[in-house]
């Protein structure tokens, strides 16, 4: 994998012209805003819950969990791994914005299952600098969910650690499977 200064990928627009994917998103936003009415919501999530999940494109968190706009915080990264930055977001979520529950979601077919910490070494060889972050690759989904639950439960910065539950989302069935933190 190399990092080069190539132009953004273009797609053929309906008008036959070329636009980038971001152009397409901006156009979609103009249509969205045209229909938008201010919901008049507070920033504090209605259900007082923060969902930490993988960034995977196949997981529609709101649809999968029956969530509506304003219900929750969604905090996503590669793997849904509880890193220091996830703890930062959870701390703000709980202390400044009133959430009390944490839901952790990993999933089948995660890209991190195919990576190892060698990924960092390969990057280091390519760019001459080792990334300061761990890849957080994992082989055992259930065990990684347990580790993530443990990181939340042992964080000194969080106020609410009694309702922390972890799940694996099956991308082929859409079903969540709960992980027992004690097994
Ligand atoms: Zn993933």
TrEMBL record:
Keyword Metal-binding: yes
Cofactor: how and how many bound: Binds 1 zinc ion per subunit.
Known EC number: 4.2.1.1
Span list, region Disordered: 1-20
Binding site for Zn(2+): 54, 56, 107, 110
Family to which this protein belongs: Belongs to the beta-class carbonic anhydrase family.
Annotated function: Catalyzes the reversible hydration of carbon dioxide to form bicarbonate.
Protein name: carbonic anhydrase
